[in-house]
Design the sequence.
Protein backbone atom coordinates (compact mmCIF):
# COMPACT_ATOMS: atom_id res chain seq x y z
CA UNK A 1 0.00 0.00 0.00
CA UNK A 2 1.43 3.35 -1.09
CA UNK A 3 1.67 6.22 1.45
CA UNK A 4 -1.01 8.18 -0.45
CA UNK A 5 -3.39 5.23 -0.27
CA UNK A 6 -2.76 4.82 3.45
CA UNK A 7 -3.31 8.53 3.95
CA UNK A 8 -6.72 8.50 2.31
CA UNK A 9 -7.68 5.30 4.14
CA UNK A 10 -6.73 6.89 7.49
CA UNK A 11 -8.62 10.06 6.61
CA UNK A 12 -11.75 8.13 5.69
CA UNK A 13 -11.67 6.15 8.94
CA UNK A 14 -10.96 9.26 10.93
CA UNK A 15 -13.95 11.02 9.39
CA UNK A 16 -16.19 8.07 10.28
CA UNK A 17 -14.92 8.10 13.87
CA UNK A 18 -15.27 11.86 14.24
CA UNK A 19 -18.83 11.79 12.93
CA UNK A 20 -19.77 8.99 15.31
CA UNK A 21 -18.15 10.70 18.30
CA UNK A 22 -20.08 13.90 17.56
CA UNK A 23 -23.29 11.85 17.45
CA UNK A 24 -22.44 10.09 20.73
CA UNK A 25 -21.63 13.24 22.67
CA UNK A 26 -23.81 16.14 21.48
CA UNK A 27 -23.83 19.49 23.24
CA UNK A 28 -26.00 19.56 26.33
CA UNK A 29 -27.82 22.21 28.37
CA UNK A 30 -28.43 20.16 31.51
CA UNK A 31 -27.35 21.56 34.92
CA UNK A 32 -24.06 19.64 34.94
CA UNK A 33 -23.32 20.07 31.24
CA UNK A 34 -20.12 22.01 31.83
CA UNK A 35 -18.38 18.65 32.15
CA UNK A 36 -19.82 17.57 28.81
CA UNK A 37 -18.48 20.74 27.18
CA UNK A 38 -15.03 19.90 28.61
CA UNK A 39 -15.23 16.31 27.36
CA UNK A 40 -16.17 17.57 23.90
CA UNK A 41 -13.39 20.16 23.98
CA UNK A 42 -10.70 17.53 24.50
CA UNK A 43 -12.31 14.85 22.37
CA UNK A 44 -12.53 17.17 19.35
CA UNK A 45 -9.11 18.81 19.77
CA UNK A 46 -7.70 17.08 16.70
CA UNK A 47 -6.55 13.64 17.78
CA UNK A 48 -5.08 11.21 15.24
CA UNK A 49 -7.65 8.54 16.26
CA UNK A 50 -4.90 5.91 16.14
CA UNK A 51 -6.54 3.57 18.67
CA UNK A 52 -10.02 3.48 17.11
CA UNK A 53 -8.47 3.12 13.65
CA UNK A 54 -6.45 0.13 14.90
CA UNK A 55 -9.65 -1.40 16.26
CA UNK A 56 -11.42 -1.05 12.91
CA UNK A 57 -8.39 -2.44 11.03
CA UNK A 58 -8.13 -5.32 13.52
CA UNK A 59 -11.72 -6.29 12.71
CA UNK A 60 -11.15 -5.91 8.97
CA UNK A 61 -8.01 -8.07 8.90
CA UNK A 62 -10.18 -10.82 10.41
CA UNK A 63 -12.69 -10.48 7.58
CA UNK A 64 -15.34 -8.31 9.26
CA UNK A 65 -16.61 -4.83 8.40
CA UNK A 66 -14.80 -2.31 10.61
CA UNK A 67 -17.73 0.10 10.50
CA UNK A 68 -19.88 -2.38 12.41
CA UNK A 69 -17.72 -1.73 15.47
CA UNK A 70 -17.53 2.05 15.38
CA UNK A 71 -19.17 2.37 18.80
CA UNK A 72 -16.47 0.22 20.35
CA UNK A 73 -13.71 2.06 18.47
CA UNK A 74 -15.04 5.42 19.68
CA UNK A 75 -14.87 4.11 23.24
CA UNK A 76 -11.13 3.57 22.77
CA UNK A 77 -10.70 7.21 21.79
CA UNK A 78 -12.66 8.25 24.90
CA UNK A 79 -10.30 6.19 27.07
CA UNK A 80 -7.24 7.67 25.40
CA UNK A 81 -8.57 11.23 25.69
CA UNK A 82 -9.37 10.76 29.39
CA UNK A 83 -5.77 9.66 30.00
CA UNK A 84 -4.41 12.75 28.21
CA UNK A 85 -6.64 15.11 30.24
CA UNK A 86 -5.54 13.57 33.53
CA UNK A 87 -1.86 13.35 32.53
CA UNK A 88 -1.87 17.09 31.76
CA UNK A 89 -3.24 18.09 35.21
CA UNK A 90 -1.11 20.33 37.46
CA UNK A 91 -0.56 17.47 39.92
CA UNK A 92 0.70 15.25 37.08
CA UNK A 93 2.67 16.63 34.08
CA UNK A 94 1.32 20.18 34.50
CA UNK A 95 1.07 20.91 30.79
CA UNK A 96 -0.50 24.06 29.36
CA UNK A 97 -0.74 23.03 25.72
CA UNK A 98 -1.95 19.91 23.95
CA UNK A 99 -2.28 19.70 20.18
CA UNK A 100 -1.71 23.44 19.95
CA UNK A 101 -4.60 24.33 22.25
CA UNK A 102 -4.83 25.02 25.99
CA UNK A 103 -5.12 21.78 27.95
CA UNK A 104 -8.53 20.93 29.42
CA UNK A 105 -7.80 22.28 32.91
CA UNK A 106 -6.49 25.52 31.36
CA UNK A 107 -9.51 25.97 29.10
CA UNK A 108 -11.92 25.06 31.93
CA UNK A 109 -10.60 24.44 35.45
CA UNK A 110 -9.04 21.61 37.40
CA UNK A 111 -12.21 20.18 38.91
CA UNK A 112 -13.94 20.16 35.54
CA UNK A 113 -10.92 18.51 33.90
CA UNK A 114 -10.80 15.76 36.52
CA UNK A 115 -14.52 15.13 36.02
CA UNK A 116 -14.21 15.29 32.22
CA UNK A 117 -11.59 12.52 32.38
CA UNK A 118 -13.75 10.49 34.74
CA UNK A 119 -16.76 10.99 32.50
CA UNK A 120 -14.84 9.93 29.39
CA UNK A 121 -13.70 6.72 31.07
CA UNK A 122 -17.29 5.89 32.04
CA UNK A 123 -18.50 6.82 28.55
CA UNK A 124 -15.89 4.48 27.07
CA UNK A 125 -17.37 1.52 28.94
CA UNK A 126 -20.89 2.64 28.14
CA UNK A 127 -19.90 2.45 24.46
CA UNK A 128 -18.04 -0.85 24.78
CA UNK A 129 -21.20 -2.43 26.19
CA UNK A 130 -23.61 -0.77 23.75
CA UNK A 131 -26.42 -3.18 22.79
CA UNK A 132 -26.17 -2.19 19.08
CA UNK A 133 -22.79 -3.95 18.90
CA UNK A 134 -24.55 -7.27 19.36
CA UNK A 135 -25.92 -6.93 15.82
CA UNK A 136 -22.42 -7.70 14.56
CA UNK A 137 -20.70 -9.81 17.21
CA UNK A 138 -21.52 -12.29 19.96
CA UNK A 139 -22.00 -11.15 23.57
CA UNK A 140 -19.15 -13.50 24.59
CA UNK A 141 -16.72 -11.84 22.19
CA UNK A 142 -17.88 -8.37 23.19
CA UNK A 143 -17.33 -9.16 26.87
CA UNK A 144 -13.89 -10.57 26.15
CA UNK A 145 -12.92 -7.46 24.17
CA UNK A 146 -14.22 -5.18 26.92
CA UNK A 147 -12.38 -7.14 29.62
CA UNK A 148 -9.15 -6.96 27.66
CA UNK A 149 -9.43 -3.19 27.27
CA UNK A 150 -10.35 -2.68 30.94
CA UNK A 151 -7.20 -4.54 31.96
CA UNK A 152 -5.06 -2.51 29.55
CA UNK A 153 -6.51 0.74 30.95
CA UNK A 154 -5.96 0.00 34.63
CA UNK A 155 -3.46 -1.60 36.94
CA UNK A 156 -2.28 -4.03 34.28
CA UNK A 157 -1.56 -1.20 31.86
CA UNK A 158 -2.02 2.53 31.52
CA UNK A 159 -2.61 3.61 35.13
CA UNK A 160 0.31 1.67 36.58
CA UNK A 161 2.49 2.84 33.67
CA UNK A 162 1.69 6.50 34.33
CA UNK A 163 2.41 5.98 38.04
CA UNK A 164 5.78 4.37 37.26
CA UNK A 165 6.52 7.21 34.82
CA UNK A 166 5.85 9.87 37.47
CA UNK A 167 7.99 8.00 40.00
CA UNK A 168 10.87 7.79 37.51
CA UNK A 169 11.21 11.56 37.06
CA UNK A 170 14.41 13.21 38.30
CA UNK A 171 16.36 10.01 38.83
CA UNK A 172 18.38 7.62 36.67
CA UNK A 173 16.48 4.54 35.50
CA UNK A 174 17.44 1.36 33.72
CA UNK A 175 16.42 0.30 30.21
CA UNK A 176 14.30 -2.46 31.80
CA UNK A 177 12.38 0.06 33.88
CA UNK A 178 11.85 2.30 30.86
CA UNK A 179 10.60 -0.67 28.84
CA UNK A 180 8.15 -1.44 31.69
CA UNK A 181 6.84 2.14 31.61
CA UNK A 182 6.34 2.25 27.84
CA UNK A 183 4.81 -1.21 27.72
CA UNK A 184 2.26 -0.33 30.38
CA UNK A 185 1.61 3.35 29.70
CA UNK A 186 1.35 3.25 25.91
CA UNK A 187 1.70 -0.16 24.30
CA UNK A 188 -0.93 -1.97 26.42
CA UNK A 189 -3.87 0.11 25.16
CA UNK A 190 -2.56 0.27 21.58
CA UNK A 191 -2.24 -3.50 21.55
CA UNK A 192 -5.66 -3.97 23.17
CA UNK A 193 -7.16 -1.69 20.52
CA UNK A 194 -6.13 -3.85 17.59
CA UNK A 195 -6.82 -7.13 19.44
CA UNK A 196 -10.29 -5.98 20.51
CA UNK A 197 -11.08 -5.30 16.86
CA UNK A 198 -9.88 -8.79 15.97
CA UNK A 199 -12.02 -10.28 18.73
CA UNK A 200 -15.15 -8.40 17.64
CA UNK A 201 -14.46 -9.31 14.01
CA UNK A 202 -14.45 -13.02 14.79
CA UNK A 203 -10.68 -13.63 14.65
CA UNK A 204 -9.31 -17.05 15.61
CA UNK A 205 -6.89 -17.37 18.55
CA UNK A 206 -3.88 -17.51 16.24
CA UNK A 207 -4.86 -14.29 14.49
CA UNK A 208 -5.53 -12.60 17.85
CA UNK A 209 -2.10 -13.59 19.10
CA UNK A 210 -0.49 -12.16 15.95
CA UNK A 211 -2.40 -8.90 16.43
CA UNK A 212 -1.27 -8.76 20.06
CA UNK A 213 2.38 -9.06 19.07
CA UNK A 214 1.87 -6.51 16.29
CA UNK A 215 0.16 -4.07 18.65
CA UNK A 216 2.78 -4.34 21.37
CA UNK A 217 5.68 -3.74 18.97
CA UNK A 218 3.77 -0.92 17.25
CA UNK A 219 2.93 0.69 20.59
CA UNK A 220 6.55 0.69 21.75
CA UNK A 221 7.73 2.04 18.38
CA UNK A 222 5.07 4.76 18.59
CA UNK A 223 6.25 5.86 22.04
CA UNK A 224 9.92 5.95 21.02
CA UNK A 225 9.09 8.07 17.95
CA UNK A 226 7.06 10.35 20.24
CA UNK A 227 10.09 10.84 22.45
CA UNK A 228 12.34 11.45 19.41
CA UNK A 229 9.89 14.08 18.09
CA UNK A 230 10.01 15.81 21.48
CA UNK A 231 13.68 16.51 20.66
CA UNK A 232 13.78 16.88 16.88
CA UNK A 233 10.21 17.81 16.03
CA UNK A 234 8.70 21.06 14.81
CA UNK A 235 6.65 22.89 17.47
CA UNK A 236 4.03 23.96 14.95
CA UNK A 237 3.55 20.47 13.56
CA UNK A 238 3.52 18.93 17.05
CA UNK A 239 1.22 21.53 18.59
CA UNK A 240 3.33 21.65 21.76
CA UNK A 241 6.77 22.93 22.79
CA UNK A 242 9.67 20.58 22.08
CA UNK A 243 12.24 19.70 24.73
CA UNK A 244 9.67 19.26 27.51
CA UNK A 245 10.88 15.74 28.35
CA UNK A 246 14.42 17.02 28.86
CA UNK A 247 13.32 19.99 30.96
CA UNK A 248 11.29 17.63 33.12
CA UNK A 249 14.14 15.09 33.21
CA UNK A 250 11.75 12.44 31.88
CA UNK A 251 13.31 9.08 31.17
CA UNK A 252 13.17 8.38 27.42
CA UNK A 253 15.16 6.18 25.05
CA UNK A 254 16.72 9.15 23.24
CA UNK A 255 17.97 10.39 26.64
CA UNK A 256 19.08 6.92 27.71
CA UNK A 257 20.73 5.56 24.55
CA UNK A 258 21.00 8.57 22.22
CA UNK A 259 18.97 9.60 19.17
CA UNK A 260 20.56 7.21 16.66
CA UNK A 261 20.13 4.16 18.87
CA UNK A 262 16.56 5.17 19.65
CA UNK A 263 15.79 5.48 15.91
CA UNK A 264 17.27 2.04 15.36
CA UNK A 265 15.14 0.59 18.15
CA UNK A 266 12.00 2.07 16.61
CA UNK A 267 12.95 0.59 13.22
CA UNK A 268 13.54 -2.82 14.76
CA UNK A 269 10.20 -2.68 16.54
CA UNK A 270 8.42 -1.85 13.29
CA UNK A 271 10.15 -4.84 11.69
CA UNK A 272 8.90 -6.94 14.61
CA UNK A 273 5.38 -5.63 14.07
CA UNK A 274 5.53 -6.55 10.36
CA UNK A 275 6.94 -9.98 11.20
CA UNK A 276 3.99 -10.62 13.54
CA UNK A 277 1.65 -10.15 10.57
CA UNK A 278 3.44 -12.71 8.38
CA UNK A 279 0.62 -15.26 8.57
CA UNK A 280 -1.81 -12.70 7.08
CA UNK A 281 -2.00 -11.97 3.35
CA UNK A 282 -3.13 -8.94 1.36
CA UNK A 283 -5.80 -8.11 3.93
CA UNK A 284 -3.09 -6.94 6.36
CA UNK A 285 -1.65 -4.30 4.00
CA UNK A 286 -3.26 -1.36 5.87
CA UNK A 287 -1.81 -2.57 9.20
CA UNK A 288 1.60 -3.01 7.56
CA UNK A 289 1.49 0.43 5.96
CA UNK A 290 0.44 1.96 9.28
CA UNK A 291 3.45 0.41 11.02
CA UNK A 292 5.81 1.85 8.42
CA UNK A 293 4.09 5.22 8.64
CA UNK A 294 4.76 5.36 12.42
CA UNK A 295 8.48 5.78 11.66
CA UNK A 296 8.01 8.74 9.33
CA UNK A 297 5.33 10.66 11.22
CA UNK A 298 5.95 14.29 12.10
CA UNK A 299 3.31 14.75 14.81
CA UNK B 1 -36.85 -8.75 59.77
CA UNK B 2 -35.69 -7.46 63.19
CA UNK B 3 -32.83 -4.88 63.33
CA UNK B 4 -30.51 -7.46 64.94
CA UNK B 5 -31.15 -9.90 62.10
CA UNK B 6 -30.49 -7.22 59.48
CA UNK B 7 -27.32 -6.25 61.31
CA UNK B 8 -25.91 -9.76 61.20
CA UNK B 9 -26.99 -10.20 57.58
CA UNK B 10 -25.21 -6.95 56.61
CA UNK B 11 -22.12 -7.98 58.56
CA UNK B 12 -21.97 -11.37 56.86
CA UNK B 13 -22.29 -9.82 53.40
CA UNK B 14 -19.74 -7.17 54.23
CA UNK B 15 -17.25 -9.82 55.34
CA UNK B 16 -17.74 -11.71 52.08
CA UNK B 17 -17.20 -8.52 50.07
CA UNK B 18 -14.13 -7.49 52.09
CA UNK B 19 -12.54 -10.90 51.68
CA UNK B 20 -13.16 -10.88 47.92
CA UNK B 21 -11.81 -7.32 47.53
CA UNK B 22 -8.62 -8.29 49.37
CA UNK B 23 -8.25 -11.26 47.02
CA UNK B 24 -8.84 -9.07 43.94
CA UNK B 25 -6.35 -6.38 44.89
CA UNK B 26 -3.40 -7.89 46.77
CA UNK B 27 -0.33 -5.85 47.67
CA UNK B 28 2.12 -5.45 44.82
CA UNK B 29 5.83 -4.73 44.44
CA UNK B 30 5.83 -3.77 40.76
CA UNK B 31 7.43 -0.45 39.69
CA UNK B 32 4.09 1.41 39.63
CA UNK B 33 2.65 -0.28 42.72
CA UNK B 34 2.36 2.96 44.68
CA UNK B 35 -0.99 3.48 42.96
CA UNK B 36 -2.11 0.01 44.05
CA UNK B 37 -1.19 0.85 47.65
CA UNK B 38 -3.33 4.00 47.38
CA UNK B 39 -6.25 2.07 45.88
CA UNK B 40 -6.01 -0.44 48.73
CA UNK B 41 -5.76 2.35 51.30
CA UNK B 42 -9.07 3.87 50.25
CA UNK B 43 -10.81 0.62 49.44
CA UNK B 44 -10.08 -0.79 52.90
CA UNK B 45 -10.77 2.39 54.87
CA UNK B 46 -13.95 0.97 56.38
CA UNK B 47 -16.74 1.53 53.89
CA UNK B 48 -20.27 0.33 54.62
CA UNK B 49 -20.32 -1.60 51.30
CA UNK B 50 -23.89 -0.45 50.70
CA UNK B 51 -23.71 -0.68 46.89
CA UNK B 52 -22.27 -4.20 46.66
CA UNK B 53 -24.68 -5.38 49.36
CA UNK B 54 -27.58 -3.96 47.34
CA UNK B 55 -26.32 -5.84 44.29
CA UNK B 56 -26.22 -9.15 46.21
CA UNK B 57 -29.67 -8.52 47.69
CA UNK B 58 -31.01 -7.58 44.23
CA UNK B 59 -29.88 -10.95 42.89
CA UNK B 60 -31.30 -12.77 45.92
CA UNK B 61 -34.73 -11.17 45.71
CA UNK B 62 -34.89 -12.56 42.15
CA UNK B 63 -34.18 -16.06 43.42
CA UNK B 64 -30.44 -16.31 42.71
CA UNK B 65 -27.47 -16.79 45.05
CA UNK B 66 -25.93 -13.39 45.75
CA UNK B 67 -22.51 -14.91 46.32
CA UNK B 68 -22.34 -15.94 42.67
CA UNK B 69 -22.07 -12.27 41.75
CA UNK B 70 -19.47 -11.15 44.29
CA UNK B 71 -17.04 -10.08 41.54
CA UNK B 72 -19.64 -7.74 40.08
CA UNK B 73 -20.62 -6.43 43.52
CA UNK B 74 -16.97 -5.68 44.34
CA UNK B 75 -16.74 -3.67 41.13
CA UNK B 76 -19.52 -1.41 42.42
CA UNK B 77 -17.49 -0.71 45.57
CA UNK B 78 -14.45 0.13 43.40
CA UNK B 79 -16.58 2.63 41.45
CA UNK B 80 -17.92 4.20 44.62
CA UNK B 81 -14.46 4.42 46.20
CA UNK B 82 -13.00 6.04 43.08
CA UNK B 83 -15.71 8.71 43.25
CA UNK B 84 -14.92 9.43 46.91
CA UNK B 85 -11.17 9.76 46.22
CA UNK B 86 -11.75 12.22 43.38
CA UNK B 87 -14.46 14.18 45.26
CA UNK B 88 -12.01 14.71 48.15
CA UNK B 89 -9.25 16.19 45.91
CA UNK B 90 -8.09 19.78 46.56
CA UNK B 91 -9.61 20.95 43.25
CA UNK B 92 -12.97 19.43 44.24
CA UNK B 93 -14.21 19.35 47.87
CA UNK B 94 -10.68 19.62 49.35
CA UNK B 95 -11.34 17.29 52.28
CA UNK B 96 -8.65 16.13 54.71
CA UNK B 97 -10.56 13.37 56.46
CA UNK B 98 -12.74 10.51 55.27
CA UNK B 99 -14.03 7.82 57.61
CA UNK B 100 -11.73 9.14 60.35
CA UNK B 101 -8.56 8.75 58.29
CA UNK B 102 -6.59 11.14 56.08
CA UNK B 103 -8.06 11.26 52.57
CA UNK B 104 -6.14 9.50 49.81
CA UNK B 105 -4.35 12.62 48.52
CA UNK B 106 -3.34 13.48 52.11
CA UNK B 107 -2.03 9.99 52.87
CA UNK B 108 -0.25 9.79 49.47
CA UNK B 109 -0.21 12.79 47.14
CA UNK B 110 -2.50 14.38 44.57
CA UNK B 111 -1.12 12.64 41.48
CA UNK B 112 -1.31 9.26 43.18
CA UNK B 113 -4.87 9.93 44.34
CA UNK B 114 -5.99 10.92 40.83
CA UNK B 115 -4.45 7.74 39.44
CA UNK B 116 -5.86 5.60 42.26
CA UNK B 117 -9.35 6.82 41.34
CA UNK B 118 -8.71 6.18 37.66
CA UNK B 119 -7.36 2.73 38.45
CA UNK B 120 -10.36 1.87 40.60
CA UNK B 121 -12.77 2.84 37.83
CA UNK B 122 -10.88 0.65 35.34
CA UNK B 123 -10.74 -2.18 37.90
CA UNK B 124 -14.50 -1.89 38.36
CA UNK B 125 -15.10 -2.60 34.68
CA UNK B 126 -12.49 -5.34 34.68
CA UNK B 127 -14.53 -7.01 37.44
CA UNK B 128 -17.91 -6.37 35.79
CA UNK B 129 -16.67 -8.22 32.70
CA UNK B 130 -14.91 -11.02 34.56
CA UNK B 131 -15.32 -14.34 32.70
CA UNK B 132 -16.08 -16.22 35.96
CA UNK B 133 -19.41 -14.39 36.19
CA UNK B 134 -20.61 -16.30 33.13
CA UNK B 135 -20.82 -19.43 35.29
CA UNK B 136 -23.90 -17.91 36.92
CA UNK B 137 -25.49 -15.59 34.39
CA UNK B 138 -25.81 -15.14 30.63
CA UNK B 139 -23.42 -12.88 28.69
CA UNK B 140 -26.43 -10.85 27.51
CA UNK B 141 -27.53 -10.13 31.08
CA UNK B 142 -23.97 -9.38 32.19
CA UNK B 143 -23.56 -6.86 29.36
CA UNK B 144 -26.87 -5.24 30.18
CA UNK B 145 -25.91 -4.90 33.86
CA UNK B 146 -22.51 -3.47 32.95
CA UNK B 147 -24.05 -0.98 30.51
CA UNK B 148 -26.55 0.16 33.12
CA UNK B 149 -23.80 0.77 35.68
CA UNK B 150 -21.56 2.56 33.15
CA UNK B 151 -24.41 4.96 32.40
CA UNK B 152 -25.07 5.55 36.10
CA UNK B 153 -21.38 6.30 36.69
CA UNK B 154 -20.90 8.80 33.88
CA UNK B 155 -22.73 11.64 32.17
CA UNK B 156 -26.13 10.12 32.88
CA UNK B 157 -25.36 9.92 36.60
CA UNK B 158 -22.52 10.40 39.04
CA UNK B 159 -20.11 12.56 37.03
CA UNK B 160 -22.71 15.04 35.85
CA UNK B 161 -24.21 15.11 39.37
CA UNK B 162 -20.85 15.97 40.93
CA UNK B 163 -20.35 18.70 38.32
CA UNK B 164 -23.77 20.18 39.04
CA UNK B 165 -23.03 19.95 42.77
CA UNK B 166 -19.76 21.89 42.40
CA UNK B 167 -21.47 24.52 40.23
CA UNK B 168 -24.20 24.97 42.84
CA UNK B 169 -21.84 25.99 45.66
CA UNK B 170 -22.10 29.53 46.98
CA UNK B 171 -25.37 30.37 45.28
CA UNK B 172 -29.07 29.80 45.98
CA UNK B 173 -30.58 26.84 44.14
CA UNK B 174 -34.10 25.54 43.69
CA UNK B 175 -35.53 22.30 45.06
CA UNK B 176 -35.68 20.99 41.49
CA UNK B 177 -31.98 21.60 40.96
CA UNK B 178 -31.13 19.95 44.27
CA UNK B 179 -33.26 16.94 43.33
CA UNK B 180 -31.35 16.75 40.02
CA UNK B 181 -28.01 16.76 41.86
CA UNK B 182 -29.00 14.03 44.35
CA UNK B 183 -30.62 11.89 41.69
CA UNK B 184 -27.53 11.97 39.52
CA UNK B 185 -24.74 12.10 42.08
CA UNK B 186 -26.01 9.49 44.53
CA UNK B 187 -29.25 7.78 43.60
CA UNK B 188 -28.24 6.71 40.06
CA UNK B 189 -25.45 4.39 41.20
CA UNK B 190 -27.40 3.10 44.22
CA UNK B 191 -30.32 2.26 41.97
CA UNK B 192 -28.05 0.69 39.34
CA UNK B 193 -26.47 -1.44 42.08
CA UNK B 194 -29.68 -3.14 43.08
CA UNK B 195 -30.98 -3.40 39.50
CA UNK B 196 -27.71 -4.90 38.24
CA UNK B 197 -28.06 -7.59 40.90
CA UNK B 198 -31.60 -8.27 39.74
CA UNK B 199 -30.44 -8.48 36.13
CA UNK B 200 -27.62 -10.91 36.96
CA UNK B 201 -29.97 -12.95 39.12
CA UNK B 202 -32.38 -13.49 36.24
CA UNK B 203 -35.10 -11.03 37.30
CA UNK B 204 -38.04 -10.39 34.95
CA UNK B 205 -38.65 -6.88 33.59
CA UNK B 206 -41.36 -6.19 36.16
CA UNK B 207 -39.07 -7.10 39.06
CA UNK B 208 -36.26 -5.00 37.58
CA UNK B 209 -38.56 -2.00 37.32
CA UNK B 210 -39.60 -2.43 40.95
CA UNK B 211 -35.94 -2.60 42.00
CA UNK B 212 -35.20 0.55 40.01
CA UNK B 213 -37.95 2.49 41.81
CA UNK B 214 -36.80 1.05 45.14
CA UNK B 215 -33.18 2.01 44.45
CA UNK B 216 -33.96 5.55 43.36
CA UNK B 217 -36.09 6.28 46.41
CA UNK B 218 -33.54 4.61 48.70
CA UNK B 219 -30.68 6.56 47.12
CA UNK B 220 -32.40 9.90 47.62
CA UNK B 221 -33.33 9.01 51.21
CA UNK B 222 -29.74 7.97 51.83
CA UNK B 223 -28.40 11.32 50.58
CA UNK B 224 -30.86 13.35 52.64
CA UNK B 225 -29.94 11.40 55.80
CA UNK B 226 -26.28 12.02 54.93
CA UNK B 227 -26.92 15.74 54.81
CA UNK B 228 -28.90 15.61 58.07
CA UNK B 229 -26.04 13.75 59.77
CA UNK B 230 -23.63 16.45 58.59
CA UNK B 231 -25.59 18.78 60.89
CA UNK B 232 -26.75 16.58 63.76
CA UNK B 233 -24.26 13.72 63.67
CA UNK B 234 -21.46 12.76 66.03
CA UNK B 235 -17.97 13.47 64.63
CA UNK B 236 -16.55 10.28 66.11
CA UNK B 237 -19.28 8.08 64.67
CA UNK B 238 -19.12 9.83 61.30
CA UNK B 239 -15.33 9.86 61.07
CA UNK B 240 -15.36 13.42 59.71
CA UNK B 241 -16.10 16.91 61.04
CA UNK B 242 -19.77 17.90 61.06
CA UNK B 243 -20.97 21.19 59.60
CA UNK B 244 -18.78 20.98 56.49
CA UNK B 245 -21.74 21.40 54.14
CA UNK B 246 -22.72 24.63 55.85
CA UNK B 247 -19.17 25.99 55.91
CA UNK B 248 -18.91 25.24 52.20
CA UNK B 249 -22.40 26.65 51.56
CA UNK B 250 -23.37 23.34 49.94
CA UNK B 251 -26.96 23.08 48.87
CA UNK B 252 -28.74 20.41 50.94
CA UNK B 253 -32.35 19.74 51.87
CA UNK B 254 -31.79 20.56 55.55
CA UNK B 255 -30.41 23.94 54.44
CA UNK B 256 -33.20 24.47 51.91
CA UNK B 257 -36.28 23.27 53.81
CA UNK B 258 -35.10 22.84 57.42
CA UNK B 259 -34.25 19.73 59.45
CA UNK B 260 -37.81 18.65 60.22
CA UNK B 261 -38.98 18.88 56.63
CA UNK B 262 -35.86 17.07 55.45
CA UNK B 263 -36.52 14.24 57.95
CA UNK B 264 -40.07 14.01 56.67
CA UNK B 265 -38.85 13.81 53.07
CA UNK B 266 -36.48 10.99 53.96
CA UNK B 267 -39.34 9.13 55.68
CA UNK B 268 -41.59 9.56 52.67
CA UNK B 269 -38.89 8.31 50.35
CA UNK B 270 -38.39 5.22 52.48
CA UNK B 271 -42.16 4.63 52.30
CA UNK B 272 -41.89 4.97 48.53
CA UNK B 273 -39.04 2.44 48.47
CA UNK B 274 -41.13 -0.03 50.51
CA UNK B 275 -44.13 0.55 48.25
CA UNK B 276 -42.00 -0.28 45.18
CA UNK B 277 -41.37 -3.73 46.70
CA UNK B 278 -45.04 -4.51 47.21
CA UNK B 279 -45.13 -7.15 44.47
CA UNK B 280 -42.40 -9.15 46.24
CA UNK B 281 -43.09 -11.42 49.19
CA UNK B 282 -40.95 -12.66 52.10
CA UNK B 283 -37.85 -12.72 49.90
CA UNK B 284 -37.73 -8.92 49.93
CA UNK B 285 -37.53 -8.62 53.73
CA UNK B 286 -33.79 -7.78 53.73
CA UNK B 287 -34.34 -4.96 51.19
CA UNK B 288 -37.26 -3.67 53.27
CA UNK B 289 -35.27 -3.80 56.50
CA UNK B 290 -32.36 -2.03 54.81
CA UNK B 291 -34.63 0.82 53.69
CA UNK B 292 -35.93 1.28 57.24
CA UNK B 293 -32.39 1.12 58.61
CA UNK B 294 -31.33 4.03 56.35
CA UNK B 295 -33.49 6.34 58.45
CA UNK B 296 -31.90 5.37 61.75
CA UNK B 297 -28.26 5.17 60.70
CA UNK B 298 -25.66 7.17 62.62
CA UNK B 299 -22.79 7.08 60.10
Sequence:
Amino acid sequence: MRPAELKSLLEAKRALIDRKLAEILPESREPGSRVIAAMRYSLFAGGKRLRPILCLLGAEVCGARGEDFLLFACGLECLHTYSLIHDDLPAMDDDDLRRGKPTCHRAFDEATAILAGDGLQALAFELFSHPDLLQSTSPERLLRALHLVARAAGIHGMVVGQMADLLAEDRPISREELAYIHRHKTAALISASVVSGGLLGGGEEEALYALKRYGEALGLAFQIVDDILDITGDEKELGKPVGSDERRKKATYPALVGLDQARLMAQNLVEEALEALSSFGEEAQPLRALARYILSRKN
